[in-house]
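Good morning C.,

I know you're traveling, so I'll keep this short. The sequence:
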Amino acid sequence: MDGTKIKKILSSVRDGSVSIEEALNNLKHLPYEDISFAKVDHHRHLRQGIPEVILAQGKKTGDVVSIAKSMYKRSRRFLITRSTEKIYNSLKIKGAVFHPVSGMISIGEKRKKSGNILVLSAGTSDIPTAEEAALTASFLGSRVKTVYDVGVAGLHRLMDNSTHIREARVIIVAAGMEGALPSVVGGMTDRPIIALPTSIGYGTSLGGLTALFAMLNSCVPGIAVMNIDNGFGAGCLAHKINIPRE
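The tokens, ready to paste straight into the viewer:
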């Protein structure tokens, strides 16, 4: 539940269209709802500007479904990361969408988009992580443009998209292998860069550590670096930069 909905409830109490008892029933699960195995944080959007998002990885299918239904009942929206088609089929919630590339499930995405986030991926193998970032930011209400497969092995592909780089308010750059692309992009623009290392690469990529270290040691100042494969975190940070709260 976000601030807009709470203001609407309070306004309805003030004008008499909603009773105090009805309002209390709508607000009774703030700050969280205890469903025995989990405590669903319905209050998080008010505190952080980002609602609680369900990480499906490591959870039982039934538990993910129960948490999602709790969220949907209160806010009519949820976002699930690291999910599966099995979980999607078990939800049985009309309107929910499964995004197979990123492994995300969403419903209630904000329709009004603002700002301009650009998500770049070095290679096609980096797309799942880039998509996690893009879908997260879009779900939260940011306008997102994606440009994929523009790595340093063919810089002409990146230069062909220089207009998108100039127009972006913030740029997420997902790259595995040697992780060089964020530094290249950072040298082309004054926009905030969020470097997103992926676990893609051969032997000495060390599951993304090489890309992570390269991004942390970039000679371009002011680049923020996310954890390996943390597209969700990158999407949240980009959204907060793109749409700062008053």
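Safe travels,
E.
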